[in-house]
């Protein structure tokens, strides 16, 4: 194992930790939305700062590794991949935080419809599974698995479409604008999380074979 | 771009030991080619084939074609002195002759019979300008070349090679004996010189190869493992042996 291998491994440990904390926050935020769990939502909001800090640490460590070790080829691609992935994971964590804030507001007003909550729960579980799997694909530089994940996300797309088509906004009492914005926000965070998972799969493919793909 | 060198099935033996095995490679003009690989892989031996410096080594036997501007230079009928006029060489350690800066630069042209003072003055000025040394030495052209710094001495050696108006410059680890500032100057110079010359450089520095070359050839145990654009070699090499070497996993 080279010195650079050790450096890369220590940065990868931080990326894995960032993934794990983000998946945990995502799960808690969805659960807080579904079950009106105020405390769980607060935990997500508080722990988001640690995830932001991890991203900054990863960026700094990668910068140092490039400056000190002048990596090339797969080492360079992996370091660049870790920066890209850390950025996407941080955004996913932000969405979890946003949903946690919505959960706190919803615990007072309960404006979310039952179909919406049911679909959100299902989408949340699919996203959680996709996040776990794309973490594995990235850690192992498993290009085939990254492609497979994107091909197999049809359930998530179907649920997103079904949720939008069900027009959950129609059940908002008195056309309350704040409720409308919050509900729209939850749908948007789930849709954007899906986009960032695709980015992570693209980064995995780049690390694996150097190809820039758009999934 | 045209192929200035086309090497076909080049094999070389030192006595019974084969140092180059079936090397085939085309080299474009006006580009920088870096030869990389671990010690003893054959990269310097290959470099020396290109201006037949290996002719000077006893028990050295070469087979195959080395086409320079479509003529096979690996042939007794090709005059190696004429070849070395067109394919100049700069060595690892600066080796100025123990004479003045001016005399160093005109040494080659004078050996070729040029005596006209005006022409020689012009060669000195042009060569030193191309070697980015003119401003440093224009006021002391007749001082000893040995009084120059290491980096200046190496640029003088480049000027001395340029004075012969070659097509190709071969450089065998030209910065390995220089400090980082002198190294940077030589690298900037190489980048300028490629407008007029083809430069083939042996280097042990992966970063230098990545910084200055357009193409990189990776040699291992006398074989050419991979030859491609430098951007490809250092971002996404095709051969796992290349990847292992440039990432420092062996060699």
Q: What low-confidence regions of chain A span 5 or more consecutive residues with pLDDT below 50?
A: none
Strand content of chain B: 25-35%
CATH topology of chain B: Rossmann fold
Computed CA radius of gyration of chain B, to the nearest angstrom = 18 Å
Strand content of chain A: under 5%
Largest interface: A-B, 12 and 12 residues
Q: In the CATH hierarchy, what is the architecture of chain B at level 2?
A: 3-Layer(aba) Sandwich
**Average pLDDT, all residues of chain B:** 95
The largest β sheet of chain B comes out as: 6 strands, mixed
The largest sheet of chain A, given as strand count, sense and whether it forms a barrel, is:
none
Description of the structure:
The complex is a heterodimer of chains A (215) and B (251). Chain A has seven helices and no strands. Chain A is an all-alpha fold. In chain A, α1 packs parallel to α3 (73-109) and α1 (3-35) runs antiparallel to α4 (114-139). Chain B has 251 residues and is of the alpha/beta class. Chain B has a single domain (3-246), classed as Rossmann fold, CATH 3.40.50.300. In chain B, strands 6-7-8-3-9-10 form a six-stranded mixed beta sheet, sandwiched between helices. A four-stranded antiparallel beta sheet of chain B has the order 2-1-4-5, covered by helices on one side. Chain B is globular. Chains A and B meet through α3 of A and α8 of B.
Topology of helices and strands:
The complex is a heterodimer of chains A (215) and B (251).
Chain A: H1 3-35, H2 38-69, H3 73-109, H4 114-139, H5 143-151, H6 154-165, H7 177-209
Chain B: E1 3-14, E2 17-28, E3 32-36, H1 43-49, E4 60-68, E5 71-72, H2 80-86, E6 87-90, H3 101-111, H4 117-130, H5 134-137, H6 150-162, E7 168-172, H7 180-193, E8 198-202, H8 206-212, E9 215-220, E10 223-229, H9 230-235, H10 240-246
